[in-house]
Design goal:
This protein has helices at about 5-20, 80-85, 85-90, 125-145, 165-175, 215-220, 245-250, 275-280, 280-295; strands spanning about 40-45, 50-60, 70, 95-100, 110, 155-160, 195-205, 230-235, 260-265. By secondary structure, it is α/β, with parallel strands linked by helices. Strands 1, 2, 3, 4, 5, 6, 7, 8 and 9 form a 9-stranded mixed sheet that branches. The protein starts with a helix and ends in a 15-residue tail after the last helix. About 45% of the residues are buried.
């Protein structure tokens, strides 16, 4: 048995065990309905380049200890694919959840032009702006909720489908390279501005996007010192995959120190992206189990993220 085979089997055992120990959405007594303050809220975030980015926000029930999960749709998709069921399941499991319409998708709109639509004919600059602007304002929203003690931004994860997978990886690098504020003599006492993306789930990830330096991003994001956890999910009969999911897994797990937090889970179906969520309930269970271990159970405590330099 090769070490890689052992790694894949270990993943299955660990995640299944985590799923058993975590509250399940099916087969158990129904949870109490969330209070009025925890009902989903639709908000519109404004980017610096005049794009309205709609989100659906599912507040957590756990207050300042709650981890946050950002849900990113696939190509030509929108946030409603998450809003139908999985976002609510995450919220019921204790997460603060944000589903996003990236620019040119869903209900997103440019307020000074006629750019709306279906995610077709995307240019390199569109993908770059999704990272630089769309995800920036989403992170800003999470920061505000963190400061209100509604969640713990230090425990932030992504679940990203298809084209959104390299966007999530790219934003994670950007986030981890943000230097802390120079507001204290010692590094540990300085107020962080990043280092908050801790876990990334990628469903049928695309290998390349125009304008996104994916190879360089992968080399950076797998830095063992960052300790980011990765789960790749794909359909083995997906004709568009072309081995991309396995290649991504191999690259991310290359440093030996990463192998205990980099996983891959294949499913014997021809479906792609968020369609896998409805193909087998095990897909959602695997994601919940992964996030439980590598996000919810992180020991990081809430801390004030408002630097005295910005007050």
């Amino acid at each position: 048995m090769t070490s890689r085979t052992r790694s894949l089997r270990l993943f299955s055992l660990v995640i299944v065990a985590a799923s058993i120990s975590a509250p399940a959405a099916h087969g158990q007594a129904p949870k109490q309905k969330p209070e009025e303050s925890n009902r989903p809220l639709v908000k519109v975030l404004m980017t610096a380049d005049n794009w309205q980015i709609p989100i659906t926000y599912y507040p957590a029930t756990g207050g300042q200890d709650a981890p946050a999960v950002v849900l990113l749709h696939g190509r030509r998709g929108d946030r409603l694919v998450w809003d139908r069921s999985f976002a609510k399941r995450l919220q019921a499991d204790g997460y603060a959840v944000v589903s996003v319409d990236l620019r040119t998708h869903g209900k997103s709109q440019n307020t000074v032009g006629d750019s709306v639509g279906t995610g077709s004919k995307l240019k390199p600059g569109d993908y770059q702006a999704m990272v630089a602007e769309d995800l920036r304002v989403v992170k800003g929203f999470l920061f505000d909720e963190h400061q209100k003690k509604h969640l713990n931004i230090r425990k932030t994860g992504f679940v990203a489908a298809e084209m959104s997978a390299p966007l999530a990886l790219t934003f994670a690098v950007k986030d981890w390279l943000e230097p802390p504020y120079d507001d204290a003599n010692f590094a540990d006492d300085r107020t962080p501005r990043g280092q908050d993306i801790r876990a990334i789930v990628m469903i049928s990830p695309e290998a390349k996007l125009p304008g996104v330096a994916t190879a360089r991003v992968i080399d950076q994001v797998r830095d063992p010192d960052w300790e980011i956890a990765f789960l790749t999910i794909y359909g083995t009969n997906d004709t568009l995959d072309k081995g991309e999911s396995k290649q991504l897994y191999n690259k991310l797990s290359l440093p030996a120190a990463n192998r205990n937090r980099v996983y891959i889970k294949p499913y014997a179906v021809g479906l792609r992206g968020t369609a896998l969520l409805d193909a087998d309930d095990d897909v959602q269970k695997q994601i919940l189990g992964f996030l439980k271990i590598h996000l919810k159970e992180l020991p990081d405590e809430w801390r004030d993220r408002q630097s005295p330099l910005t007050k």
